[in-house]
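A favour, since you know our structure tokens better than I do. What I am after is a single protein written out in full by you. Could you add the entry underneath, on a fresh line?


***
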Amino acid sequence: MYWFIFLFQNKFNIVSLAFRTDKYTLDKRLEIQERARDISEQNVDQELYGLREAVDLLNHLCTDGQIRDVISKIKNHIDVLEQCAARVSSRAEVLGAVQQERRMCRAMEVMIAHVDNQKRLYEKDHSELEEARFDFKFFLSNFYVSLV
């Protein structure tokens, strides 16, 4: 039984330390991740812009109607890519939030189990103390009776 309590106390201490450490570094990590996301989004936007410029140049140089139709389709695909890039960025943020929620849920389970174990230990110790008080009072009452 005590190894089980020790295990939960150990996990509780680890989770508690992780929360304290995360608290100190959270703002900096958030800033770094936001900057990395913004840079990635800018890079995708720049590449799509460059692709669009190249397609426009090709469209101006081209005189064949069939090739212009293909270029028009390529422009439509570029528009779709821009929309997809925005959705991917948004979905990635949601995924990160859900993953963090799952980690927090596991950590909370450990904390709740630790608190439950502490409550059981308290109740056990409290009942033993009450029993000892009762036994002591009974002993004292018998002791006084035997003295009289």
About this structure: The chain is about 95% helix and 0% strand. The chain has a mean pLDDT of 86. The chain has one domain: 2-147. The CA atoms of residues 98 and 104 lie 10 Å apart.
